[in-house]
Design goal:
By secondary structure, this protein is an alpha+beta fold. The chain contains 21 helices and 25 strands. The protein binds one RNA strand through helix 6, helix 13, helix 15, helix 16 and strand 18.
Length: about 675
RNA sequence: GGCGAGGUAGCUCAGUAGGUUAGAGCAGUGGAAUCAUAAUCCACGUGUCGGGGGUUCGAAUCCCUCCCUCGCUACCA
C-alpha cells in the first residue's frame, strides 16, 4: 500500500525532441513532447529515481538558411535568437531540464562526426555519385522536390527531377526536359555530386525485432506501433547521410568539401552530445557514459508523432551500427511515448494565419500553472485534442480555483480562526476519518502507477479527484458544527484535511510546481519521497505558514478578448518581400474576365475547370478554388486573371492563365478578387 | 485520388482478450449546507454507441459495405 520507501531505484534517461531553432514554440509543442516529459521527470525525481532530463535546440538544416537569407543575416543570428527565446519560454513554463543544450556547439559537431567517421571507416556507408541540379543564382544544389520539368516519358510538365508521379517512371535528372528551379525560377545546371547513404534496409530485420521486443516488454503505445508497422511494410531504404549545403556539421572526409551531415542523422545525436555537455558542467566525466552506455539505464524519448520514425527506426539503427563496430555500446530507447498533436480551437496551429498562441505570449498573459494543468488534463495521448480558451478558463476557475484552491483556502482559514494556525491534534477516529486516511494513502500509489505507464492525463484527473474527496470530507465532517459541540472531533477533521493538502501538494508537484511550492510554504514543510507522501506527515502542533490565494479566477472578458484576436495574424510576422521594379510588374498582364462556365475536375479535390471570357477571346483555365466555391456560384462573376501566363497542363487539362485570389484565415480557402460589374471584360489592370 | 486516424449523452472525452440496467468531467434541473476565492456536497440522463448487412446464445467492442470529419500527400500556373 505504498508505505515502503522506494527500494529499487531506476536509472532513467529522458529526452524531449530538440525544438528547431527557426521559430518560437507554441502550445502544441508543449503538449506533444515537453510537458508530459516534465511531469514524468518530476515524478521520478520525487520518487527518488536517478534521472536526467536532456533537451536543446536543433540548429542546422535548410529552413534555417532560408530564414537567414530572407532576413539577410547569417544563420547564426537566427539560431541565437530562437535558441534564446525558446530557452526562456521553457524556463518560464517551468520545464526542469537538467540541460538545454544546442547542436551548434563544438561538442555536438565532434560527436556527430565521430559517428559518421565510424561508419565511414568501416565501409558501412554506400557512396553514390549522381548528377544533381544546381541553381547558380542561389548557389545551391536543389533537392529533388525543388526542381520540376517535363517528364521524358509521358510529357507531364510537373515532373520532379528524378521521377514522374503521373506515369511513375524513374529516370536520371539529365533526362528531364525544361528543368526549372522552384526556388529561383531559373534553369538549373547539372553538376556531379556524390553522397553517402546509410543502409537502413540492412537493419530492417533487427529493427523489427527491437520494436516488437521493446513493445512487448514495456508496452509501447498503439499509435507508435502503427507508424512503425507502416514504415516496415513499405520497406526501409537507404537514406542519404549527407547534403550539399554549407550550414551544418561538416562531413569529416577530405573529398567532402561543401557537404554537411543530413540534419536528421545528426540532430538525434544531440541528445548524446548534450549529455556530454552536462557531464562537463557537472564535472563528472563519466556521467554521460553511465546513462548512455550501461544497459541498466531506462531510456525514454518523448516526442510528437511527426518524429516517430527518427526515434524508433533511424536513431536505433545508428546506435546498432555503432554497437556492431565499437566496444563501448550504446543503449537504445526503451520507450517512445509519442503524443499526437494539439490543435487550437478546432484547427491546427498556424503562425502565418494567426491561429494559436506561442508560449511566451501566453505567459505574458497568464501564469504557467493554469496552462500546465489545462494542457496536462487534455494531452493528445491517444488522438489529436484541442486547446479551447473556454476550457482553459473553466479548468482554471472550476478546478484549480474552486476545487483545489478553495479546499486549501477553507481549511487554512478555519485552522487559523480556531486553532491558532497550528496543526490540530488527531483524536479518536470515526469511520469517516479512517476511510479518509485510507483514501489519501491510496493516491500516491494510484497516481504513480499511472504516470509510470505514461497515462498522464488519467493521473492528473486522479489528482484532482483527491481534492474533490477532500472537499467532500470537509463537508461531511461539518467542522463548523463540531467546533462548537465537539472540539476534539473538529480538530481531527482539520488534521486530516491538512494532511490531505500535504499529499495534494506532493501529487500535484509534477503538474503545477509553482503553486505546490507555495503550498509547501503555507504548510511550512517540504516535499518528501513520493511513497511516504500519503501518510499523516504533519504532526499535532506543527506551525503553519502564511496562507495565500493560489489561483485567481479569470474573467469572461479576458477570455473573450483572446478569442476575438484569433485569426488575425500578428503584426510581428512580416514576410520580407523582394523588391521589384515597375518594369518587372509591367510584364504581368492582369485582365478582367467573366466566368462563363465552371465545373469540377474529375478526381481532384481542389481544381475547377473554368471557361472565361476575356472580351475578345474565350479561354479554359484550371484553378485551385474548389474548396472555396461551388461551380454554380462562380458563373457570371467578374474576376482578375493573369492573361499572359505561360499555359500549363493540370490533370491533363490545359490551363491558359490564372485567376487572382487572396488567402483567408481558413486553411485551404481563398477569396476571389472580384471586379465591379461596370468594368468590361478584357480591361487591363495597372 | 493514395496513406493514416476518428465518428459514443448539449459540450470534451473514457470505454476492444465481445457478456448483467454503456461511463466520467463540464453545462442544465432540483435539493443540502454556510467554514471558504458566491467557493462546496448530494440527487437527476428515453444516448438509434455514424448508416446498413453479417458472425454469435450475446457486439460500442469481430467481419463486410456505405456515409461523414480530420491529418499527411498529390493537384492549387
Amino acid at each position: 500500500m505504498g508505505n515502503s520507501a522506494n527500494t529499487n531505484k531506476e536509472k532513467v534517461l529522458v529526452t524531449s525532441a530538440l525544438p528547431y531553432a527557426n521559430g518560437r514554440i507554441h502550445l502544441g509543442h508543449l503538449s506533444g513532447a515537453y510537458l508530459p516529459a516534465d511531469i514524468y521527470v518530476r515524478y521520478k525525481r520525487l520518487n527518488g529515481d536517478d534521472i536526467i532530463y536532456i533537451c536543446g535546440s536543433d540548429e542546422h538544416g535548410v529552413p534555417i538558411t532560408i530564414t537567414a537569407d530572407n532576413e539577410k543575416v547569417s544563420p547564426k543570428v537566427i539560431i541565437d535568437r530562437y535558441h534564446e527565446l525558446n530557452r526562456l519560454a521553457f524556463e518560464k513554463f517551468g520545464m526542469s531540464f537538467d540541460i538545454y543544450s544546442r547542436t551548434s556547439l563544438l561538442i555536438h559537431h565532434e560527436t556527430a562526426r565521430e559517428f559518421f567517421k565510424t561508419y565511414f571507416d568501416q565501409g558501412l556507408l554506400v557512396e553514390k555519385k549522381s548528377l544533381q541540379f544546381y541553381d547558380e543564382k542561389v548557389k545551391m544544389f536543389l533537392p529533388d522536390r525543388y526542381v520540376e520539368g517535363t517528364c521524358p516519358r509521358c510529357g507531364n510538365e510537373e515532373a520532379r527531377s528524378d521521377e514522374c508521379e503521373k506515369c511513375g517512371s524513374l529516370y536520371e535528372p539529365s533526362e528531364l526536359k525544361n528543368p526549372k528551379s522552384k526556388i529561383s525560377g531559373e534553369t538549373p545546371v547539372l553538376k556531379e555530386t556524390s553522397h553517402w547513404y546509410f543502409p537502413l534496409g540492412k537493419f530492417q530485420e533487427r529493427l523489427e525485432k527491437y520494436v516488437s521486443e521493446m513493445s512487448e516488454k514495456f508496452g509501447w503505445k498503439e499509435n507508435v506501433l502503427q507508424y512503425c508497422r507502416g514504415w516496415f511494410k513499405e520497406g526501409l531504404k537507404d537514406r542519404a547521410y549527407t547534403r550539399d549545403l554549407d550550414w551544418g556539421v561538416k562531413v569529416p572526409v577530405d573529398e567532402a568539401e561543401g557537404k554537411v551531415l543530413y540534419v536528421w542523422f545528426e540532430a538525434v545525436l544531440g541528445y548524446i552530445s548534450a549529455t556530454k555537455e552536462l557531464s562537463q558542467k557537472r564535472n563528472e566525466p563519466e556521467l554521460w557514459k553511465k546513462f548512455w552506455q550501461m544497459n541498466d539505464t531506462k531510456y525514454v524519448a518523448f516526442i510528437g508523432k511527426d518524429n516517430i520514425v527518427f526515434h524508433t527506426i533511424i536513431f536505433p539503427a545508428m546506435l546498432m551500427a555503432w554497437n556492431d563496430i565499437q566496444s563501448d555500446k550504446y543503449i537504445l530507447p526503451q520507450n517512445v511515448p509519442a503524443n499526437e498533436f494539439l490543435n487550437f480551437e478546432g484547427k491546427k496551429f498556424s503562425k502565418s494565419r494567426g491561429w494559436g498562441v506561442d508560449v511566451l505570449d501566453f505567459l505574458d498573459l497568464f501564469p504557467p500553472d493554469p496552462l500546465r494543468y489545462t494542457l496536462a488534463a487534455n494531452l493528445p495521448e491517444n488522438k489529436d485534442t484541442d486547446f479551447y480558451w473556454k476550457e482553459f478558463q473553466s479548468r482554471n476557475n472550476g478546478e484549480l480555483a474552486d476545487i483545489l484552491g478553495n479546499f486549501i483556502n477553507r481549511t487554512f482559514t478555519f485552522v487559523f480562526k480556531h486553532f491558532e494556525g497550528k496543526v490540530p491534534p488527531l483524536g479518536k477516529l470515526d469511520k469517516i476519518d479512517e476511510d479518509m486516511i485510507k483514501l489519501i494513502e491510496e493516491y500516491p500509489v494510484k497516481v504513480g502507477e499511472l504516470i509510470d505507464r505514461y497515462k498522464i492525463k488519467d493521473a492528473v484527473f486522479e489528482m484532482m479527484n483527491l481534492a474533490r474527496a477532500g472537499n467532500k470530507y470537509f463537508n461531511d465532517s461539518e467542522p463548523w458544527v463540531t467546533v462548537k459541540k465537539d472540539k476534539e472531533k473538529c480538530a481531527t477533521a482539520l488534521n486530516i484535511c491538512l494532511n490531505c493538502i500535504y499529499t495534494l501538494a506532493e501529487l500535484f508537484e509534477p503538474v503545477i510546481p509553482f503553486s505546490t511550492e507555495k503550498i509547501f510554504k503555507m504548510l511550512n514543510s517540504t516535499k518528501c519521497n513520493w511513497n511516504t507522501s500519503g501518510r499523516l506527515n504533519l504532526k499535532e502542533g506543527h506551525l503553519l505558514g502564511q496562507s495565500e490565494i493560489l489561483f485567481t479566477k479569470i474573467e469572461d472578458k479576458v477570455i473573450d478578448e483572446q478569442i476575438n484576436k484569433l485569426g488575425k495574424p500578428d503584426g510581428d510576422v512580416k514576410p520580407v518581400d523582394e523588391e521589384i521594379t515597375i518594369d518587372d510588374f509591367k510584364k504581368v498582364k492582369l485582365r478582367v474576365a467573366v466566368i462563363k462556365n465552371a465545373e469540377k475536375v474529375n478526381k481532384s479535390e481542389k481544381l475547377l475547370k473554368l471557361k472565361i471570357d476575356l472580351g475578345n477571346e474565350e479561354r479554359q483555365l484550371v484553378a485551385g478554388i474548389a474548396k472555396s466555391y461551388e461551380p454554380e456560384q462562380l458563373i457570371g462573376k467578374k474576376v482578375l486573371v493573369v492573361a499572359n501566363l505561360k499555359p500549363a497542363k493540370l490533370f491533363g487539362l490545359d490551363s491558359q492563365g490564372m485567376v487572382m485570389a487572396v488567402d483567408t484565415s481558413e486553411e485551404g480557402k481563398v477569396k476571389l478578387i472580384e471586379i465591379d460589374n461596370s468594368v468590361s471584360p478584357g480591361t487591363l489592370a495597372k
